[in-house]
Amino acid sequence: MKIMIINPDYGMTREEMDLRCEILSQFTGNDVELFMECLTETKVYVDSAFDVVMAGPEIVKRTMQAEKDGFDAVVIYCFSDPALDACREAVSIPVVGGGQASCLVSMMLGRQCGILITDKRRMSEKMAFRYQTGLMPDNISSIRSVDLQHIDVWEEREKTVEILLEVSKKLIEEDQVSVIILGCLSFLGLAEPMAQALQIPVIDSAKAAVSMAESLVRQRLFTSKNAYAFPPEGERKWSAGSIRI
Question: Which among 98, 101, 63, 57 has a CA at the least distance from the CA of 239?
Fold first, then answer.
């Protein structure tokens, strides 16, 4: 089984992407091969709804190529699930987004979940995102942001966990959540120490997405074209350019 992971953030090194695949491979079967690509034609880091739209065309293009190259599923490596519906229209293989996957998993473990995001400016966007997950909005009962300015999540792991735990305790004590979702895939590998400290389930969105993609392939499931019909035939052109706000 081969799963393509598309990271919408531009400019990642091969070493950085291979490290993520190495971590994720610990949670997949021995017959699963993970590959990661990042955007190269579109210079975007997904930090807003604006960036989600800008990243979309290349994500769809890479998803279509993955199917042509014989991959069994695609994972969109971002909690915002950029271009998820468009990718599902473009191919027949399963396409799984980190945001939707982790939210669906949360309801198998508890009744109300809370999400930790990295930027309070995106709070209203994430509140609206609840309606795209397949859950009742009340199931995602709280969303809180963490302040990680000037912190390198990959280099300062202990400090990052400390900050995440501080906000997580508010989700539990004040908002009464029973499951916590890490709403950024840069938090890969941090869920387990947090769950041990908090004594409630903490969902790693990257693991949830890859595991769900693997499960769909093993069940020989595919994207329904009754829901995600192929777009009308015809050429679409997109010239990667620049825009200033």
Answer: 57
